[in-house]
Amino acid sequence: MDNLKPTFSEGGKLGFLASTFDAFETFLFVPNTTTVRGAHIRDCNDMKRTMIMVVLALMPAFLFGCFNTGSQVGLEGFQAFFYGLVRVLPMVCVSYIVGLAIEFYFAQVRGHEVNEGFLVTGLLIPMIFPVSTPLWMVGLSTAFAVVFGKEVFGGTGMNVFNPALLARAFAFFAYTPSMSGETVWYSNWTMMGAQVDGATGATALENLATTGSLGFSPLDAFLGFIPGSFGETSTLAILIGGAILLVTGIASWRTMISVFVGGLAMGYLFQLTGVTEYPAWWHLIVGGFAFGAVFMATDPVTSAQTDTGKYIVGLMTGALAVLIRVVNPAYPEGMMLSILFMNALAPLVDYYVVEANIARRNKRGVKLAK
Amino acid sequence: MSSKNLKYLTGPFSVNNPVIVQILGICSALAVTVQLKPAIVMALSVTVVTGFANLVMSLLRNGVPSRIRIIVQLVVIAALVILVDQVLKAYVYEVSKQLSVYVGLIITNCIVMGRVEAFALGNKPWPAFLDGLGNGLGYGIILIVVAFFRELFGSGSLLGYPVVPESWYAANGGWYSNCGLMLFPPMALIIVGAIIWVHRSRNKDLQEK
Fold first, then answer.
1. Which stretch of DSSP H or E encloses residue B161?
2. pTM for the full model?
3. Residue of B nearest to A178 (CA)
């Protein structure tokens, strides 16, 4: 690796690939540069490590998703897990290859370092798509999200919208038949005796919207043995991941808690006014609510930056998601739309929180001066 | 045609384009570009209106007191738009129905009045006419490019003729499906954005610092 380095640095034969080389080098090895002066932060929790921790936190939901994909087509035990794994790996590969190719290309053209932001996005994308989504749709949605959601704003850390959710939103509006309905939640591969024929059925969310009952036992919905997008069915697995994120201090507990509180409050409001008849907490265990609250709403880039702002944005995200679910019959799932919407509003909320703080402190100053 | 006059005509095609450089006339670019055919008709209509509005106003420019110039401009433009509307209704009724109110709304298209105000009132009739035609065509080019992509990827056809083979579609055992997002107006905005992106990266002096 060190022998190769001069070839890729400035003036070298392949100097124009410097940032690609740098990305691989820092990915594989610990950089051998040290800070010489000034204060040192001993435990440097850099972006690479943050991203790896998020990927780790996604693992419980991912592994369960594999198992559930298989069990939804009638397989059991290890076979079910293996079936799901084989089913989802191509999606993961496509999402990573397309996304990273675009990231590397833009980093190269702009002469930036390649960022690790896509490590998480690339895994999130397959987890929020139905398992039967054609691979080219996954690829196209990823490309759209990375180019128009991220690179046009200046790359990792500059994006207004969560790229993974943007990919899903693109696919949802562009290829609606492949993203919603009764059949898409089941894998359509015949393999290892999977009973694909006749494997259809509404998701718990659609049942809620149309009949007002889950169609599954709440325990099943909590554990995740229900049809749905790949990684979002099991609230339990998601909460384990959420715990990892909170313990390592990567995700903000303020956002996470307030999304759940907001959703619950809105659910109770509907229950009290008689709009819905089922218990409010059902909202939290079906569909993408938990997944969105834990992994999407807490995205440090697109969420609010101030503490008060995090409470406000979180509450509104949860409340809006339930509002869309209940009131708008065209969208049984409101989580995606509500998070994207609040992504757009987060800077505004931050702005007013900061302004309010300045006004408050100014007032205090005036009082002291008197 | 002198080279200066030629510049009035061709300038708006690229470096002075009304849509992608001056960001005018965006609303109709979103509304009429779902299919190629209405977009072409719209492009021609706007070209006729901008060209003749500029010509007429340039002829009248010394006789119109500047305090009432806006209302005079409106009368001229409105008369031209009504003419265009009637011609469309007479010869291409189907397309005219598809365009519905957007033909009438040419009156409010910022490009028309913008060119009259900024150019025709201070220039001789011939350059003013060329400038109007150029701006109408510059607007039309963008409209047609946007409509091309939206119809091709959104409906799988061009000018109403299917381009994507039938056997590709999922209904016939294929793998392809049309991009429904292309039929929504937001996608037109994204395509216009992409065109601006390409255009600015080719014309470096247009890039803002």
1. strand B161-162
2. 0.80
3. B177
